[in-house]
Amino acid sequence: MKPISDFLRKLTSSREWSLWWESSNSSDELTRVTLALALIFLAIYWCAWVFIKKQGAAPPPPGPRGLPLLGHLPFLDPELHSYFADLARIYGPILQLRLGSKVGVVVSSPALTREVLKDQDVTFANRDVPEAALEAAYGGSDIVWTPYGPEWRMLRKVCVREMLSSTTLDSVYALRHREIRQTVSHLYSQAGLPVNIGEQTFLTVLNVITSMLWGGTVKGEERTSLGAEFRQVVTEMTELLGKPNISDFYSSLARFDLQGIKKQMKGLALRFDGIFNSIIEQRMEMDKEGGNGGGKDFLQYLLKLKDEGDSKTPFTMTHLKALLMDMVVGGTDTTSNTVEFAMAEIMNKPEVMKKVEQELEAVVGKDNMVEESHIQKLPYLYAVMKETLRLHPALPLLVPHCPSEPCIVGGFSIPKGARVFVNVWAIHRDPSIWKNPMEFDPERFLRGAWDYSGNDFSYFPFGSGRRICAGIAMAERMTMFSLATLLHSFHWKLPEGKLDLSEKFGIVLKKKVPLVAIPTPRLSDAALYK
């Protein structure tokens, strides 16, 4: 206020002002008074505007204070999804954590999620790429971590139109059918013995995906050996991607890799890279010789795209291998974990098991095997899958988003470059949204019309907006086909002991204790299992 008052004092004491104000023309008196008042009010308004602007800047979201330099890092619980949910009950549906030199923001309500993933979708379309992902995804050159822009759109188009479209998935049904039947045959040979359901499902999904990727290239025993190696590597990679890393929170320390996470991930990525190089060389050699290896596969298409792609946004060998990595890592663990959780929940509620078996008997019959054509006629099993994804979403915090510019969410300021977690796990268990949210109740999805479109921010297990999961159709088909076949072909019971439904946090949610169960054949003819 002082600069303005000084200005007015100087103005009113000036000779020109005095001459004008002291004019003997009485007809100008009202004009002079009006002008003086206008100047005073203008000065007051300007000062008030500056004060309000300064005071009215959106504050940061609330949250715990943390420690100097470290912020809240020392207090993070390894089970981040449930820990963030506990904090939200204290600080509200949007909260801020200082994570070293980085700002973390957690969103835990449908309304605020809509602001992030729909209303400001473009602003939040980028990722805060962790050091581990840079190693795993060829410098972040894949569809998950690539920044939003022409390169990402090109990769998305390749995946959605060529690999994961309904037409493509229909064309490779025989691959899914073959691998599911092989799993059934193996389980039949293990009847009466404990079986690790997650492991068997993983190998089934892996064989389907690798058949789609390079099915005409790798055959026989080599595929079996690759399956065992892939499962070990995928498990270790997803664990590293979900582990808090000092290098991500203090960029100046990244080069030192104090926890060794970058080194570990590099070793795992090199194992994959060696496999990819070998398979690519085989495919290129086959193409030179004029063979097609028994039919076209996705790898053949990608190699052609690399040679003939758009020069403005070229598709490189790095992109090719990064997409192979996405398909193998992203498509296997998520689906197999969902099937494992679903089986555990079903076995924990005998009345659900009974309803599933009755529906399968009515639609498929005990003298037939499940085909994908039966899937759309199984509404109760669909409800089981949806309820599983509600309680145990594959990615409980989605993949963290990163605003490309400062913005406002829920009346709070979010800085550019923050790591924004959308806690879909907490939203799916919110008692203000879901009745008896902790109970596994598939019938709630028979009463409601929830889907995977990402338009309902009370239920969005595959995310929403531009970065919504590209593999929804594939995940849905594999999960339903696997569940229907396992539950129709066998009755399942637990070995001695109590069923454990506890979770283990990671970028992909897992069962803390693997599900081991004993299969008993249910079909009328043993020949169906061969």
From TrEMBL:
Necessary cofactors: heme
InterPro entries: Cyt_P450 (IPR001128), Cyt_P450_CS (IPR017972), Cyt_P450_E_grp-I (IPR002401), Cyt_P450_sf (IPR036396)
Alphabetic keyword roster: Heme, Iron, Membrane, Metal-binding, Monooxygenase, Oxidoreductase, Transmembrane, Transmembrane helix
Entry-linked SUPFAM superfamilies: Cytochrome P450
Transmembrane helix is among the record's keywords: yes
Family statement: Belongs to the cytochrome P450 family.
Protein name: Uncharacterized protein
